[in-house]
TrEMBL record, chain A:
<dbReference type="InterPro" id="IPR002429">
    <property type="entry name" value="CcO_II-like_C"/>
</dbReference>
<keyword id="KW-0813">Transport</keyword>
<dbReference type="GO" id="GO:0004129">
    <property type="term" value="F:cytochrome-c oxidase activity"/>
</dbReference>
<dbReference type="InterPro" id="IPR008972">
    <property type="entry name" value="Cupredoxin"/>
</dbReference>
<keyword id="KW-1278">Translocase</keyword>
<keyword id="KW-0472">Membrane</keyword>
<keyword id="KW-0812">Transmembrane</keyword>
<keyword id="KW-0479">Metal-binding</keyword>
<dbReference type="GO" id="GO:0042773">
    <property type="term" value="P:ATP synthesis coupled electron transport"/>
</dbReference>
<keyword id="KW-0186">Copper</keyword>
<feature type="transmembrane region" description="Helical">
    <location>
        <begin position="12"/>
        <end position="35"/>
    </location>
</feature>
<comment type="function">
    <text>Subunits I and II form the functional core of the enzyme complex. Electrons originating in cytochrome c are transferred via heme a and Cu(A) to the binuclear center formed by heme a3 and Cu(B).</text>
</comment>
<dbReference type="InterPro" id="IPR045187">
    <property type="entry name" value="CcO_II"/>
</dbReference>
<feature type="transmembrane region" description="Helical">
    <location>
        <begin position="100"/>
        <end position="121"/>
    </location>
</feature>
<dbReference type="Pfam" id="PF02790">
    <property type="entry name" value="COX2_TM"/>
</dbReference>
<dbReference type="InterPro" id="IPR011759">
    <property type="entry name" value="Cyt_c_oxidase_su2_TM_dom"/>
</dbReference>
<comment type="similarity">
    <text>Belongs to the cytochrome c oxidase subunit 2 family.</text>
</comment>
């Protein structure tokens, strides 16, 4: 540091610092624009997902404005207020009006975003409609077992002590529903436009049942069954992914989802039951 | 009490052996440096693990790591960086070194406890490092170590002896940390120099002070969880393991446990922990921005209130890590609201830093550059947090790389930048020499660009739906296009990693051969700059007396553009607040 009273000129340093910040700003925006077309949210295939995506977009607008505004301001401050000559800084260090404004305005924005979130969340976690197709999904290292009930809608009682190669969920043979339940590995079918209620469980450790296209995720926790529901509305094939580290095979826990017409679904289910 | 402490640590009275003087020193400055060197080493360990991860993830088909090694690297990277680098350097190195010097005390309230805290820290490091060499290797269940995966040894190769050692190492580390926090609180409350009211306390000390409170309240919760996990693993208890689990083809003998209990306990600690990792950095950055803007920090009262409210609120938001965990959905609503609210004081602080720079006369030292970099990184990370706070959006983003991007910005990078800023700033006081500014600036530019290049693209891996802790994305057809992103991230990471050698070289060369530092090379106001560089045992021949707050810069009418806290007030240049403080004596 040069001794006091000596002229210092930091304007060049300030310019470079400001340019660096502006570079980050530009790179951040440009990479976002590229990512929007290449690496964005998976194609949407559910009704509830629409509300989630809209909410996501509102947050995106707010945060984009924040990111740009802060970096512009920062760059401007660095360039404009580099030290030069013996001039002194301004001495002010409080301003009630400014402080109230930037407390209340972001505060209001955050609270509004929070309340929007609460409403959306309650919709997602509302009770499933009565016409929902009920399916059970059980995570296990490193597969997804999918179980459909029979016509009577009943799931057979299970007991882990009964688990075997041919009875991977340990269904109790004494339970008549065991004969009509259909158990599949890594394959989930749903009907376009029909709500589906999924009961998520685990046989061993915590997994997480993630359907990216439907904006659905629910941890599969041993010792409890958690019900979620949604309505798939785009026919097609999609993936199930595991979203909670569950051991060395975590990266292989992929499943397939098919959304199809009621007729195609019925045919498929009958074929599975026959096997 | 002053004299008694000074006597205990005054080396001139009785010549000490090398071992007592350096190894088991009671001097807070030596202890601070000891922490610095050990945590710097752990940063290199954690950073190397990251380089290993990125070498694999850029080109996963090459298979340079197998799945369990990859998971071990990821787990230990997080564990080392969070516990043994960031937490320990901020409190152990900066807290220890700065507190007595910035409050005008000759040393900590309990110098022996301070020494004990370091020498409890070292065994925790050794136990953790030992876990790399045991059969089965180190823990591989993430730094979050969710049960039952971590509670049942048969559940994964990464759940073996290494996981037990992980539990033990962190338990010991927590103990060492609690000793430190007790010391910090006592010292700050009881040993401030005459005239140093709480309203004149530097923000760096406020940050450390509130951090210590958070640590005392949250670390015991983790310790309880760790004890329970230890017992589940070795003593047949079932805190976290329900009945009827089929693991490794066998039914586990446990019953009655609750898997979610681990998460509640862990995150009740975990959320305050991440604020522990940001409050001290915020304080450090406030000192540095004010000093090098030659301008008082804007909104001192709001800054203190924000630190305190962030600290308080940090205990009310832990459930945002558990939105899809299976806990009661009502909590999904309450934790969204509390998490949105905690963003408000952070925003206030950001505006205050920006306003401090505005109409300042900025000196672009390396320390200032890193402090400004902190503001950018903290803002980027804080903004991504809003997506995650919104529980419906978190359904999609939870446990994806979006989360990884968020915490690497707001925790890892921001804290790291404050550590660099603080190092360049206080190096003259620690070692009596100056670091090389030219190398510092090169280090800054490469690190700033490298960090954005490494972590910004991870937001897009997350929006695209890529889960965390994946050995490879190639099993998922919907992730077929992510390779170019992963390669870009990996190359940026290598640049980032390589740039740190510039810092290491500068740091050690300067320590041994750097130009000698004067007492107050930065013309800063706080008390440490009135002590010698480096200060002797006891810091000052006589306890300093404080007449004003730390931010009397650019005071109209004053002979210089800064007025240290020890300069008595006079009518001609009494600063805006007459008595030279921000109001409020305590």
């Amino acid at each position: 540091m040069p001794p006091q009273g000596e002229v210092r000129d930091e304007r060049q340093a300030g310019l470079w610092a400001g340019i660096l910040v502006l570079f980050i700003l530009v790179a951040g925006v440009v990479s976002f624009v590229i990512a929007r077309s290449q690496w964005w949210l998976q194609p949407l295939a559910s009704v509830q997902g629409k509300v989630i995506d809209e909410y996501f977009d509102w947050i995106l607008y707010a945060t984009a404005i924040g990111f740009v505004a802060v970096h512009l301001f920062l760059a401007a401050a660095l360039i404009r207020f580099a030290a030069r000559g013996g001039e002194r800084a301004a001495h002010w260090h409080e301003h009630l009006g400014a402080e109230l404004t930037w407390t209340l305005v972001p505060g209001a924005a955050f609270v509004i975003l929070g309340i929007l979130g609460v409403f959306t969340w309650s919709g997602i976690y509302s009770a499933p409609p009565s016409n929902a197709e009920v399916v059970e999904v059980t995570g296990k290292q490193f597969f997804w077992y999918i179980r459909y009930p029979g016509q009577d809608g009943r799931f057979a009682r299970t007991d882990p002590r009964l688990i075997s190669q041919s009875n991977p969920l340990g269904m109790d043979p004494a339970d008549p529903a065991a004969r009509t339940n259909v158990v599949l590995v890594n394959e989930l079918h749903m009907v376009t436009g029909r709500p589906v209620e999924i009961r998520v469980r685990s046989l061993d450790v915590i997994h997480s049942f993630f359907l990216p296209n439907f904006r659905v995720k629910q941890d599969a926790v041993p010792g409890r069954t958690v019900g979620i529901w949604f309505t798939p509305d785009q026919p097609g094939t999609y993936s199930i992914a595991c979203a909670q580290l569950c051991g060395t095979g975590h990266y292989t826990m992929r499943g397939n989802v098919t959304v199809e017409s009621q007729a195609a679904f019925d045919t498929w289910l009958q074929q599975q039951a026959a096997q | 009490m002053d004299t008694a402490v000074a006597h205990e640590t005054h080396a001139g009275d009785h010549p000490e052996s090398f071992i007592r003087h350096y190894l088991f020193s009671l001097d807070h400055k030596t202890i601070g440096k000891q922490y610095y060197f050990v945590t710097l080493f752990m940063a290199l360990v954690g950073g190397s693990l990251a380089m290993l991860m990125r070498a694999h993830l850029g080109w996963p088909d090459r298979g340079i790591l197998d799945p369990s090694t990859y998971l071990a690297a990821a787990t230990m990277h997080g564990t080392v960086m969070i516990f043994f680098f960031l937490t320990s350097i901020l409190t152990g190195a900066f807290g220890n070194f700065l507190i007595p010097l910035m409050i005008g005390a000759p040393d900590m309230a309990f110098p022996f406890l301070n020494m004990l805290s370091f020498w409890t820290f070292v065994p925790s490091v050794l136990v953790l490092l030992a876990s790399f060499f045991v059969p089965g290797g180190p823990a591989g269940n993430g730094w979050t170590s969710y049960a039952p995966l971590s509670a049942v040894p048969a559940a994964s190769p990464g759940s073996g002896l290494g996981q037990t050692l992980w539990v033990v190492a962190i338990f010991i580390l927590m103990t060492s940390s609690l000793f430190g926090s007790l010391n910090f609180l006592t010292t700050i409350i009881n040993m401030r120099a005459p005239g140093l009211s709480l309203g004149r306390l530097p923000l760096a000390i406020w940050g450390i002070f509130i951090t210590a409170i958070l640590a005392l309240l949250s670390f015991p919760v983790l310790m309880a969880a760790l004890a329970m996990l230890f017992l589940d693993r070795v003593a047949g208890t079932s805190f976290f393991v329900p009945a009827g689990l089929l693991i490794g083809g066998k039914l586990t003998p446990h019953s009655g446990g609750e898997a979610l209990l681990w998460q509640h306990l862990f995150w009740f600690f975990g959320h305050p922990e991440v604020y522990i990792l940001i409050l001290t950095p915020m304080g450090i950055v406030s000192e540095i921005i004010s000093t090098f803007s030659r301008k008082p920090i804007f909104g001192y009262k709001a800054m203190v209130l924000s630190l305190a409210s962030i600290g308080f609120l940090s205990f009310l938001v832990w459930g945002h890590h558990m939105f899809v965990s299976g806990m009661n959905p009502i909590l999904g609503a309450t934790f969204t609201i509390s998490t949105m609210i905690i963003a408000i004081p952070s925003a206030i602080k950001t505006f205050n830093w920006l306003t401090t720079l505005w109409q300042g006369r900025i000196r672009f030292t390396t320390a200032l550059l890193f402090a400004v970099g902190f503001v950018s990184l903290f803002v980027t990370g804080g903004l991504s947090g809003i997506f995650l706070a919104a529980s419906p959006v978190d359904i999609y983003l939870h446990d994806t790389y979006f989360v990884v991007a968020h915490f690497h910005f707001v925790m890892a990078s921001a804290a790291l930048f404050s550590i660099f800023a603080g190092t360049y700033f206080w190096f003259p006081k620690m070692f009596g020499r100056m670091m090389n500014e030219r190398l510092g600036k090169i280090h800054f530019v490469l690190t700033f660009l490298g960090i954005y290049g490494t972590f910004y693209p991870m937001h897009f891996l997350g929006t695209h739906g890529m889960s965390r802790r994946l050995y490879t994305p190639n099993f998922y057809p919907f992730l077929g296009s992510v390779q170019p992103l992963d390669v870009f991230v990996s190359i940026s990471a290598f640049v980032l990693g390589a740039a740190q050698f510039i810092f290491i070289a500068n740091f050690f060369w300067s320590m041994l051969r750097g130009p000698k530092a004067e007492r107050n090379p930065w013309q800063s106001n706080t008390l440490e700059w009135t002590a010698d560089s480096p200060p002797p045992h006891g810091n000052w021949p006589q306890t300093p007396v404080v007449y004003r707050w730390p931010y009397d810069y650019a005071v109209p009418g004053a002979p210089e553009d800064y007025i240290p806290q020890t300069v008595p007030t006079a009518p001609a240049y009494a600063g805006r607040h007459g008595g030279g403080d921000a109001g409020g004596a305590a």
